[in-house]
Design brief:
Blueprint (H helix, E strand, L loop, with lengths): L2 H14 L3 H12 L17 H28 L3 H35 L9 E3 L2 H11 L11 E14 L4 E13 L11 E2 L3 E14 L2 E13 L11 E10 L6 E5 L24 E13 L16 E12 L1 H25 L4 H7 L3 H26 L8 H23 L4 H4 L4 H23 L1
Parallel strand pairs: 2-8
Antiparallel strand pairs: 1-9, 2-3, 3-6, 4-7, 5-6, 7-10, 9-10
Helix pairs in contact: 1-3, 2-3, 4-11, 6-8, 6-9, 8-9, 9-11
Length: 456
């Protein structure tokens, strides 16, 4: 609404409050020639003091109205082609900046997603028998006189099925085998394995054979693992499923060694020990490998003579996975992206132009209720994400949800300002252009900064 419109309404109220005599004098003042200077009509002196005050106030409003109309007319006489050209240039710059930011953001995502996997910091990866020998010789002390000799049991694993049953539970099934030499120095050794971190394990011997000078024993097993996964970088997150293996007589000088000669390839990228037909929903398998971790414990498990507080080399079988990005983006990006696009359409439509508002059927007051609906839609989507991941803190994708909340609030404030103060200098000349050209660059730049802080 223009300033002259407000003054005209005030002037009409002031004239309506004048007495007939005062109104007649006011009309005489309006008809007076500008050359008359400050002279007043003859009937002015015949008015009562309140009537004179009313006439003087109405006359001042009349002067203010003339000045406002003159100023607005001067603004209207500005070259509309220049303003239109400036708006077009600003839109082009905004589009180019947004495109550049989008390319940078996508490039950062691709770089993170295609980066080679890295094992757990505590893992010492084993890909050759020599590496196993050197590691165990360096970490396992030679037995003291009178102690039992060291025994190393070759152990292999073949995984046929992996399934996530919740955010932190993994069900695994397959085969584990061990080779026991006939001349083992520990004749009373209890043959078998333990999965110490499994919340449920079921195993049974499915084959046993004498091969040369050793006995081969194979078990089928099913286990449910409860493991701590890191979802902070969702949907660009990577995780590692691990199976920790102990020998059944772990309290003795018995150590497990990976049976590397049982595999056709030990390159982690060829997925040794994994069935090629494994289906892991919403995840891509990158690598599999054996490793050792040196673990210590703060209890001796009630076993007399067991030393718990020294490094124990323990065998692990690991599966490196990364999230299927396409399915995650489709399921979790639709809500915030669609809402951000709809908010941008609102920003382009709202403004000081009443004809445009009527054309699209948009009112600044109604925008507030629309923003409230958008807020609850984003809130429901975010709660669904957090329920699925059960993450302890914020995850990377939630930054987009938080940005959407900020944009919803900004659009609501923008519509309120346009309705309450349409003549602010911010809107007077270029309408709501400032919000339109800064919309996408601001969002994309914020995502670039967040991505850099998360993955940089």
């Amino acid at each position: 609404m223009r300033h002259s419109t407000l003054i005209r309404a005030e002037l009409e109220d002031a004239v309506a409050g004048l007495t007939p005599a005062a109104r007649a004098v006011f009309e005489d003042i309006k008809r007076m020639d500008e050359d008359a200077g400050s002279e007043l009509p003859e009937g002015f002196n015949a008015l009562t003091p309140p009537e004179r005050t009313g006439v003087i106030g109405a006359a001042k409003l009349q002067e203010e109205l003339a000045e406002a109309e003159a100023a607005e007319e001067a603004d209207d006489l500005k070259d509309p082609a220049d303003i239109s050209r400036l708006k077009r240039r600003l839109r082009i710059v905004s589009a180019l900046v947004s495109l550049a930011c989008l390319i940078v953001l996508v490039g950062m995502w691709v770089g993170v997603y295609t980066a080679p996997p890295t094992p757990h910091p505590a893992d010492v990866v084993m890909t050759t028998p020599d590496e196993v020998t050197r590691y165990l010789e360096a970490l396992v002390p030679a037995p003291k006189p009178g102690e039992e000799p060291l025994v190393f049991i070759p152990t292999g694993m073949y995984i046929e099925n992996v399934e996530f049953r919740g955010a932190y539970n993994v069900a695994v099934s397959g085969y584990i085998w061990q080779r026991y030499a006939n001349d083992l120095p520990l004749k009373d050794l209890d043959k078998g394995f333990v999965l110490p971190e499994a919340s449920y394990v079921r195993s049974e011997v499915v084959y046993r054979a004498q091969q040369g000078n050793e006995e081969l024993i194979g078990w089928s097993f099913q286990a449910t693992l409860r493991e701590q996964f890191d979802y902070d970088r969702y949907p660009l997150d990577r995780n590692q499923i691990w199976l920790q293996l102990w020998h059944k007589d772990f309290e003795r000088n018995v150590y497990l060694a990976p049976d590397l000669r049982a595999y056709t390839s030990l390159d982690p990228d060829t997925l040794p020990g994994l069935d090629s037909d494994i289906v892991l929903e919403n995840w891509d398998i990158e690598q599999s490998f054996f490793s050792y971790r040196a673990n210590r414990y703060n209890a001796n498990f009630g076993i007399q003579g067991y030393v718990a507080d020294i490094d124990q080399p323990e065998l692990y079988y690991n599966i490196s996975i990364k999230r299927d990005l396409v399915s995650a983006l489709i399921s979790r990006l639709i809500v915030p992206i669609v809402i951000l696009i709809q908010l941008f359409v609102i920003v382009m439509v709202i403004g000081r132009d009443n004809k445009r508002l009527e054309l699209f059927g948009v009112r600044p007051g109604a925008v507030i209720f629309t923003c409230a609906a958008f807020f609850f839609a984003v809130l429901v989507a975010q709660n669904s994400l957090r329920t699925e991941l059960e993450a302890q803190g914020f995850v990377y994708l939630e930054s987009l949800y938080l940005l959407t909340y900020v944009v919803i609030l900004a659009v609501a404030i923008n519509s309120v300002l346009l309705a309450a103060h349409p003549d602010l200098k911010l809107f007077r000349e270029y309408d709501n252009m400032w919000a339109e050209i800064s919309y996408w660059p601001s969002i994309l730049l914020a995502m670039i900064v967040i991505t850099f802080l998360t993955f940089g």
